[in-house]
User: Fold Enoyl-CoA hydratase/isomerase family protein from Streptomyces ossamyceticus.
Amino acid sequence: MSTATTHETLLVEEREDRVVVTLHRPEARNAISGRMIAELHEVCDLLEADPKLLLLTGHGGVFAGGADIAELLRRGRNEALQGINSRLFERVRRLPMPTLAAVDGWALGGGAELSYACDLRIAGPDAVFGNPEAGLGILAAAGACWRLPELVGESIAKQVLLAGRNLDAAAALAAGLVIDVVPAEKLLDEAHALLDRMARSSATALRLTKLVVDSPGAHPVADDLAQAVLFEGQDKKDRMTRFLEKRSRA
Assistant:
């Protein structure tokens, strides 16, 4: 069972184990506006209160063609210090359960940075990732300058951020930025199949694994604490018992 909610800039579908969010500003190639940022914060409210998997995609064969340039032009020092986009993207990054961006078409500027904030990305054949901010007299300040090197390495990140290189679907796959490239008409089906696979895992184990992976410098204490919680859980006992019973029958 699912429920669909229409916001001004988003289409939101709530399912039992996941929330599907479609960026929906067709008149502006799904450019990320202040209103969209506010509505994505509402989605984060939902997912923090009731942790579920998140699938994030774009309407009309475009993920997001960047931030809203008209709004950026009006922003000054005070708005930059507020971190309007970066705070939202960091919140997406820190959501309790895994997040997946299904990207086809343009994912530029803030749109690319939003996809970088997700745990995983899957691409259609026309996907293009790029950060052309320097050409507009600004920098990619919503995470690309440090997330992208972590995702694809310093050399490729500098090609994108400094030399203006766009990564098409094949280059994104080769760089490890996306998990797979699939036909456009199968993109959402394959994205859901990936989420289905994750949903079969222990939700608590997924949450703690994500927390540990995202906690550099805290190892091995963080690993030990998370494992201690999981070792005491009934879910672990049930799953391992089923595994051993299945193997004994083989």
Notes: The two ends are 36 Å apart (CA to CA). The first helix runs from residue 34 to 49.
